Predict the structure.
Amino acid sequence: MMGSGGVGGFFGGLLAHAGHDVTFIARGAHLEAMRRDGLRIENVGRGIDLHIPKVRVTEDPASVGPVDIVVISVKLWDTESAARAVKPMVASHTGVLSLQNGVIKDEILRREFPAEQVMGGVAYVATHISRPGVIDQVGTMQRIIVGEYDGRESERARFLQRSLAAAGAAAELSADVRRAIWEKYVFLVALSATTSTTRLTLGPIRSHPRSRAMLLEIMREVVAVGRAHGVALPADYADSRMQFADSLPADMTSSMHHDLERGNRLEVDWLSGGVVELGAKVGVDTPMNRAVCAILAPHAAGRAPG
């Protein structure tokens, strides 16, 4: 697991708890806590406290050696450096799978690895590091979709899907993983944009008519851009995502909102900014996402210490 935060720590933790041989790449206080106390996954609302008392964790990917699958879940701006760092772990048989946000992540990976080694994947889970060594989950959603870009059902993808399912995740194999990634992108962009610009959780946003309309319009822009790029999204896909939004916990938020509140760097240039950039390439106007980029621009680089 290259990156052991909310996504990598959560799904890697499930696999390690189920007895799989998992190595976590972490750093700083999170690394030290995992070395000392293992990894804990908490869900206060559901009364879950999953503790893996001993985990294999390091800050040096080169010390691990070749593995079967590398899962990358670092922030988007670290994708290139992470890809280069994991190269000592990547043999000719190794699958490289990104569970990062956005739709350009795998294009970056293909610059570093042969296309046939890059798998497609997308994760739906509301998690973050609440304190070093502890992953906090909100709600019940823990869905993960994996697949090969050529649509075949490979042994490595099937093994990963079965392992995740047996470990307790709602894991699926997709024959059109590009579409699956865009399906998440539609909602993720809107959730990240609205929670960050309003500094609120999903509940108040979907309850107010004007912020609800903003949420829907942002998703409609993403759908229009994806369809213009040849992704097989239904024309009314944004409307169905509103129904999905209504089914989620009111206190759900986005990782970008967490980063904003903590003064960290933001992924806005890869999320709403990615929509604007991809829209410009196919002549689709994206005024709502452009506005989000402008609103969050003063915060995009994070807050200076002190």
Observations:
- The beta strands are 23-25, 39-43, 48-52, 56-58, 67-72, 90-98, 118-131, 134-147, 170-173.
- The longest helix spans residues 177-198.
- The CA atoms of residues 64 and 89 lie 7 Å apart.
- The chain has two domains: 6-175, 180-299.
